[in-house]
Design brief:
Structural class: alpha/beta
Number of helices: 4
Number of strands: 17
Order of helices and strands: HEHEEEHEEEEEEEEEEEHEE
Radius of gyration: 20 Å
C-alpha cells in the first residue's frame, strides 16, 4: 500500500530477505503504479518469492535482481527497450534459456552493462548469431561491459560488440574457449583459466593481455606467431610481446 500511495518514484531499492514480495507485487505495486517514472529498480538479496515477474517499462534504465534465489526467468512479454544496466549475479535458479543472449536482447536491446557473476546455469554465452549467406547478427550491440566471473559451468564465450571495453572472466575455471571482437578494448585479463584451450581475439587497440596461469595456452602465446596454433588467433596489431603477461608462478588473486 505504501508503494501504491507514493508518487513520482524514480529510484526504488528493496533489499534483504523480504519474504512477502512476490511477482504480483513487482507487476502491480511497482511497475503498474510507477511505470512512467521508475528509472532504477533494485531487488537484491534473496528477495522473497520472486520467480517469474513481468517487467515492462520504457523509462527503466537500471535493474538489479542480484541474489534473488527464486528467480527463474522473466515473463516472455517483458520488455525494457531503454534498459542500460542489468544485474543478474548470483541468481542461482535462473534458467539457461532466460540467460540466453538472444532472449536478453529482446528484453533489453540497448543494454550497456550486463552482470552475470556466480550463475550456475550458464554454460555458454553467444553474442553472435551466424545466419545464412555469410550474414551475422550481433546480440546486444551496445554492450560496453560484461561480468561473467565465477560461473562454474561456463565453457564457451563468444562476444562481438563495437563498444565492448571490458570483459571480466576470472574464476571461470571450466572455460574452454573465449572469442572476443571489439575495436575499443585495450586490456583483457584471462588469468588462471586453467581449462582455456582456445583464445580468439580481434581487438585492434588491445595493448595488454594477461594469460597468467593459462597453462594450455602457454606454448602458443610465447611463440606469438599468427599461424602457430589454430587454437590461438590474435588479430591485435597494437599488442606487443611486452604487453603480454604470462607468468605461472604467481598465485591467483581472489580479491575483488
Amino acid at each position: 500500500s505504501l508503494l501504491r500511495s507514493s508518487n513520482q518514484i524514480t529510484h526504488l531499492h528493496l533489499g534483504g530477505p523480504i519474504p512477502s514480495i512476490c511477482d504480483f507485487d513487482i507487476e502491480i505495486a511497482i511497475m503498474q503504479y510507477h511505470n512512467n517514472t521508475l528509472e532504477e529498480l533494485i531487488l537484491d538479496g534473496y528477495c522473497g518469492k520472486i520467480k517469474s515477474p513481468k517487467i515492462q517499462s520504457t523509462v527503466l534504465r537500471r535493474l538489479n535482481m542480484s541474489g534473488c534465489k527464486g528467480l527463474s526467468a522473466l515473463q516472455p512479454e517483458s520488455r525494457c527497450p531503454n534498459l542500460e544496466e542489468l544485474d543478474l549475479s548470483n541468481c542461482s535458479n535462473a534458467s539457461f534459456d532466460f540467460l540466453n543472449m538472444q532472449n536478453l536482447s529482446k528484453f533489453c536491446p540497448r543494454l550497456k552493462v550486463l552482470k552475470l557473476r556466480m550463475n550456475t546455469a550458464i554454460e555458454e554465452i553467444e553474442c553472435v548469431n551466424k545466419g545464412g549467406n555469410d550474414s551475422e547478427q550481433t546480440y546486444l550491440p551496445h554492450l560496453e561491459h560484461i561480468d561473467m566471473r565465477d560461473c562454474p559451468l561456463l565453457r564457451h564465450v563468444s562476444i562481438r560488440s563495437p563498444v565492448l571495453a571490458t570483459a571480466e572472466v576470472r574464476g571461470c575455471n571450466h572455460m574452454q574457449s573465449l572469442i572476443v571482437s571489439s575495436p575499443v578494448m585495450s586490456t583483457l585479463c584471462v588469468a588462471w583459466l586453467y581449462s582455456l584451450e582456445k583464445l580468439t581475439l580481434n581487438c585492434q587497440i588491445l595493448t595488454s593481455l594477461d594469460v597468467t596461469g593459462c597453462y594450455k595456452l602457454m606454448t602458443g602465446i610465447h611463440q606469438l606467431l599468427p599461424d602457430f596454433d589454430k587454437n590461438i588467433q590474435l588479430k591485435c596489431p597494437a599488442l606487443q610481446r611486452s604487453g603480454i603477461k604470462s607468468g605461472t608462478n604467481d598465485a591467483p588473486d581472489t580479491n575483488d
